[in-house]
Write a structure and sequence with these properties.
By secondary structure, the chain is mainly α. About 75% of the residues lie in helices and about 5% in strands. The longest helix has about 30 residues. The protein is globular, with a radius of gyration of 17 Å. The N and C termini lie far apart (about 55 Å).
């Protein structure tokens, strides 16, 4: 269940096409002062990352910390990411275009924070890191090819 103020916040920032530092302050202070209370709220914040092309860096900080806190410490068993939570997280963090940098960060930080994480989430986090490194390698090769062509 998503609280109405979160829905209104998301509608407003999607219409604006960006998330400002002031928006992040409002989100943390007024909309979710006690953090995420339901998986649907986490899903919405993760989807918002994909839907809004520009966001202040503080958005990633707030959402990452809130999702980690919810998934690791707010769900039972506390400190453990079981198969049910792992499946939900991977489903939410994955997208057709691949995980966003924020989604990859959330996966990695949950695996790091939890006492144990189910292998589904661990594999997803490793895959995110592998894709990031591979993308960096491709960028280096393309950059090198462009210099050689000049």
């Amino acid at each position: 269940m998503i609280n109405r103020s979160l829905q209104l916040f998301c509608n407003r920032v999607v219409a604006a096409g960006r998330i400002t530092a002031a928006d992040v302050q409002i989100l943390g202070r007024d909309v979710l002062p006690d953090g995420i209370s339901h998986a649907d709220e986490a899903d919405m914040l993760i989807a918002l990352d994909r839907a809004v092309p520009q966001s202040d860096v503080s958005y990633a900080d707030l959402v990452s910390a809130a999702v980690v806190n919810f998934a690791v410490w707010g769900e039972r068993p506390t400190g453990y990411v079981d198969v049910e939570i792992a499946r939900w997280l991977v489903g939410s963090l994955r997208s057709d275009a691949g995980p966003t940098p924020l989604a990859a960060r959330i996966a990695f930080e949950i695996v790091r924070e939890a006492e144990t994480s189910h292998e589904i989430l661990v594999a997803f986090a490793i895959g995110c890191a592998h894709r990031r490194h591979r993308a960096e390698d491709v960028a280096i090769v393309v950059e090198g090819d462009l210099r050689d062509a000049a």
